[in-house]
Amino acid sequence: MQEFLQYFFSGLTNGAIYGIIALGFSMLYRSTDLINFSHGEFVMIGALSMVTLTMTLKIPVIWAFFIVVFGVGLLGMVFERLAIRTVKRPEPIVLIIITVGASIFLRGAGMLVWGKNAQSMPPFTPHPPLDIAGARLLVQSIWILVIAILIAACLHLFYRRTLTGKAMYACAINKQAAWLVGIPSKMMILLAFGLSTGMGAVAGAIIAPVTMPAYDMGAMLGLKGFCAAMLGGLGSLWGSLLGGFLLGVLEAMGVGFVSSGLKDATAFLLLLLVLYFRPQGIISAASVKRF
Hints:
Elements: H1 2-32, H2 39-56, H3 61-84, H4 92-114, E1 130-132, E2 135-137, H5 139-161, H6 163-173, H7 175-180, H8 185-207, H9 218-232, H10 237-257, H11 265-277
Antiparallel strand pairs: 1-2
Helix pairs in contact: 1-5, 1-8, 1-9, 1-10, 2-3, 2-4, 2-8, 2-9, 3-8, 5-6, 6-8, 9-10, 9-11
């Protein structure tokens, strides 16, 4: 039981991170019908920026967190304005290739700025691990779980209760009709990019104390976040979070009770099964038709 709980806690921690990354994928997809394959690199930038602000510049953690989220979100908006909006024929395959190219560019830029060596930083709060039935739960893991649930709840309220969130929904359903009633669809897409990459920054900032951030960490995290989004339902906020938790727990159990070689294979095996048996995911988002 002790061993099971330890793997379960580890899976919940990783699952919360995958869920936040998956939220970024779903937010952008439901507003623009685009999958950003450079999303993992924004996670990397968030993690390394958090280390730089707290360890090098000695900025308090709470202020560093908000600076990182705002800065990376702004970077995502610049990316949309310069690389996505300027495309003359925005076909899906063209936009996907652009995001893949952006991933390679950002990874190289990360290597030039932070170097090839992994970085480190202490937990948000210096508290010893909690002992629960013999299993150890890091306080940073509690931070990660709480932040993941709070973000999902805030995004749900944003889309359901605010005029801006409803405007983004309207643009997803019919951009031309939204424009006719005075909703700036281009501005909503720009905001979607900012929120999406901001979610990546949140994931990077909270993962920094429990891992060793490096310039090449984004590719695998991005792929696992995409798998979590597909598992839960691409475009569904709560489905993305659920998919992240499920992926994290199954990955941890596979590593603990079967083989450590299954750590990365679990995500892609689940992705194949979902695509084959239930391509809409566990909680499918309402389908919309774009004109």
